[in-house]
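Q: Here's a chain of 447 amino acids. Please give me its 3D structure as C-alpha cells.
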Amino acid sequence: MTDAAAPPAKPLGLMTCICLVVGNVVGAGFYLSPAALAPFGMVAVLGWFLLAIGAMCIGIVFARLSSIAPAAGGPYAFARQAFGPLSGFMVAWTYWISIWASLPAIALTLAGYLLAFFPGAKEPWMTVAVALAAMWGICLLSFRGTATVGSLQRWAVALKILPFVAIGTIGLFWVRPENLMPLNPSGMPILPALSTLAPLVMFAFLGIESATVPAGDVDNPKVTIPRATLIGAGICALLYIFCTIAVMGVIPREQLAASSSPFADAARVMWGSWAGSLIGVAVVLSSLAALNGWTLLLGQVPLAAAKDGAFPRVFGRVNSRGAPAAGLSVSLTFSSLLLVAQGGGGQAVAAAYEVLVQLSTTANMIPYIFCAVAEAMLVKSLADRGGGWRIGPFTPAALIAFGFSVWVVIGSGATAAMWTLVLMVLALPIYVVLARRQPEPALEPFT
C-alpha cells in the first residue's frame, strides 16, 4: 500500500504575507506625508490614529473574508461571490486601474532617490528611464512566479524598515516640544481638518488587503491571511504614528512643509549627513518592495477575473511558471505610457496622469466599500445555514470600515469621485462584450 502523494508546498507563508502587506502599504505616500501634513500640526497625528483604526477595521473585514473563502483575487473574488459577476467585474476593474495608475509614482520615487546619489544624472529623461527600467525589471522577475516575488519581498522589507523604526523610536529623544505647537495651526475646525487629511493619510494605507489577493499561492490561507493582514496593519500603524511625531518634533513646521525629503532631513538633524544618505537607500529599497508587491497584485487580480470570464482572456494566460506574463505586460504598458507622458512635459497628458494618480485612493475605496458590505452578507448567509459564524461580534468592524471608506471618498473631493464614476460607467460596455463572448461559470456557495 502506497501513501498518497503530498500536495505541493505553497510558496507564500506567514512571514512572506506580512512582508507583502508591509511592503505594499509602506511606500511613496508615507515618505512625503510629514511634509504634506505639516500645516495641520498634531491634528495630523490624530488623523493617523483615527485612520489607522479605520484601516485596521478594513483589515479585519479582509481577514474575515479570507477566513470564510480564501479565493485568489482578493476584493474581486469576495465581491463576486457576495453580489454576483457584474459587481465582481466592477471591483476588479477599479482595483486594476488604481494599481497601474499608482505604479509610475512609486517608480518615480525610486528613481528620484536613486539618482540623488549621482548629482550629474538628474535630467528628467534619466529619471524616466530609470523608473521604466525599475518597473520592467520587477515585471520580468514576476515572470518567474510568486516564489521569486515573495523571496525578494522578504529581503526588501527587512532592509527598508529598520531605518524608519530607528526614527520612530530613537528619534523621539530629539523631539523639541515647541516644534509640535500649536496643536492645530491650520485654523480649521477639527472635523473639516480630519476630512481634508483623510485622502492624504489613507493613501499611505492602501494595500492593506495585499495578502488576500494571491490566496491560491498561500500556505494554509484561512489562518495565514487573517494573521498577516492584522499583524501587517498593526506594524504600519505604529510606524506611521511614531515616525510622524518624531519628524514633526525634530524639524520646525515651516521648514518641514517645504521639504522634499522630510525623513532624510530629520535623519541629518539627528545623526548627521551619513544618516540622510542611509534614509535615501531605505527609500529606494522601500519603493522597490512596494513596486514588487504591487506588480504581483497587478497580475493576480485580472488573472482571477479572467479565469471567471470577467476580464479579457489575455490576462488569464500564464507561462510555464504559472505567472500571468501576458497580462502583466499589457498592464505595465499602460503604466509606462503614463510615466512617459508625465516625464515628457505634455501639459494635457500630464494633467490626465495627475488625475489618474489622484484617483488611486478613491478607486481603491470602491473595493473596500463592496467588501465591507460583502462581509456582513456572507457571514449572515453562513449563520443562516448553520455555518457557526455569529454576526454580532463582527458587525462593528464592518460598519466602521464601510463608513470610513465612504468618508475618504467624500474627502477626496468631487473631481476624483466624478472621474471614478466615469471610469466605472465606461467599464459597462466592456463587461457586456465579455459576458456575450465568454459566459462566466456558475457561482459556488461559500462553505
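Q: Can you summarize the key feature?
A: The mean pLDDT is 77.
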